[in-house]
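Dear colleague,

Thank you for sharing your sequence with our group. We've completed the structure prediction you requested, and as agreed, I am returning the results in plain text so they can be pasted directly into your records. Please verify that the sequence below matches your submission; if there's any discrepancy, let me know and we will rerun it promptly.
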Amino acid sequence: MEIKSLTTPIGKFNACYINSMLARLVYINKQHSSYPPDIILQKIIDKFFANGKLNKLPKYYIEGTPFQLSVWKALIKIPKGHTESYSSLASKIGIPGAARAVGTACKLNPIPLLIPCHRVIKQDGSIGEFALGKANKEYLLAMESK
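Please find the predicted structure tokens below.
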């Protein structure tokens, strides 16, 4: 496994690669990373924070259950500046009533930011939780709504 570091406005990440494919973004917040910078992914992330768009995802390899993979695939389809409720997303993947399981899949998202789990909110429109912290979710949603 190869590990490289990233810096974002919401904190630092370690990018973990398997066979040159991104497998995980580990949020380390303000901790120091002893790994070399990830120049290519840093450019992609910088563009994301500059305009809220991901023009192209880096090659990635993620593992999960079939359910998790279907949730993560659906997350990629939520456009910038839009949100989707956990229950609506569950219906879209063909498993109505699985809102809590969708929330768990979002929490276990191995490459947050690139697979935009921050765009999923509660049915009542409230923001809900976020693995990287509620303040970061609010920041990301505000950034993308500009």
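Summary note from our side: The longest strand covers residues 21-29.

Kind regards,
the structure core
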